[in-house]
Design goal:
By secondary structure, the protein is mainly β. 0% of the residues lie in helices and 63% in strands. The protein has no helices and 10 strands. The chain has a 4-stranded antiparallel sheet with strand order 2-1-5-6, with no helix packed on it. Strands 3-10-7-4 form a 4-stranded antiparallel sheet, with no helix packed on it. Strand 1 and strand 2 form a beta hairpin. It is elongated and about 65 Å long.
């Protein structure tokens, strides 16, 4: 069984007992978060597709980690002008453990 959920403007495939890494969500480690924007549920041969969402379906998750990704470096260079600029960025993310999928038909 797996579901497709939407959070942070992106879609993620989730299975019970698995992990997904999403854009940063508020909450501490160990706190439960309910994702209610379920787009698709597949259970063996049965597939339910929402239009756009499946009414009453929710995914219960637990925050496993709040962290930041590896640094992405950006280097800007203008030849013959002595201009150089090196910047970096670390995007925060939340790792969620999928506990259960509720509200299915």
């Amino acid at each position: 069984m797996f579901v497709v959920v939407e959070t942070g403007g992106k879609q993620y495939t989730a299975t019970p007992g698995g992990f997904i890494e999403v854009e940063k969500l508020p909450g501490e480690k160990g706190e439960q978060i309910t994702l209610d924007r379920v787009l698709l549920v597949a259970d063996g041969e049965n597939v339910t597709v929402g239009q756009p969402l499946i009414e009453g379906a929710t995914v219960v998750t637990t925050v496993a980690l709040q962290a930041r990704r590896r640094k992405v470096l950006h280097f800007h260079y203008v030849p013959k002008k002595r201009q150089r600029k090196k910047t970096g960025h670390r995007q925060p993310f939340t790792r969620l453990r999928i506990e259960s999928i509720q509200g299915l038909v």
